[in-house]
Amino acid sequence: MVITRATEYAIRAVLFMAMQPPGTTVLKKDICREQDITPAFLTKILQPLIKSGIVGSQRGVRGGFFLNKDADTITLLDVIKAEEGPIHLNLCLEEEGTCDRDTCCPVNRVWQEARAGLVETLDRYTFAHLVEMTRQGQDLPLAKSASTFHQ
Q1: Which of 8, 13, 18, 139 could form a Cys-Cys staple with 127, CB 3.0–4.6 A?
Q2: How do the residues of the chain divide into helix, strand and coil, expressed in percent and rounded to 5?
Q3: 118 within a domain of the structure (yes/no)
Q4: pLDDT per residue over 37-52, tens digit each?
Q5: What is the C-alpha to C-alpha distance for residues 80 and 116, in angstroms, rounded to an integer?
Q6: Residue 146 within any structural domain of the chain
């Protein structure tokens, strides 16, 4: 699975908003400048986040974008799902019965386990934790050594 460029920029935009004081409305031009995103592309990538309730928008002179939820309740998984939909590593996982072999195929079980691990990891990291790690200049801990950050 490769996330799209739109999702990558959406994650960067949400992280930028999460780094601002809570309740701050961030100007579109500031997000664009700081994250090197064109205004048209930013508008496009924020639409799914607004629709899913992660980000809010305000029009007018003091308009811009803001987090609609606390950064400690928004996970990487939330943003990825808002931008790309549910995570499926293979078509056989999209819907039960898609593949006639899903009940007897050993690879299907591996895909299920791999997806579960990916979803668990992405759901573990909240934007509050990513902000804290950014401010401390920390790298993400590796898979098995990672403690649970979001519960």
Answers
A1: 18
A2: 55, 5, 40
A3: no
A4: 999 999 999 999 999 9
A5: 15
A6: no
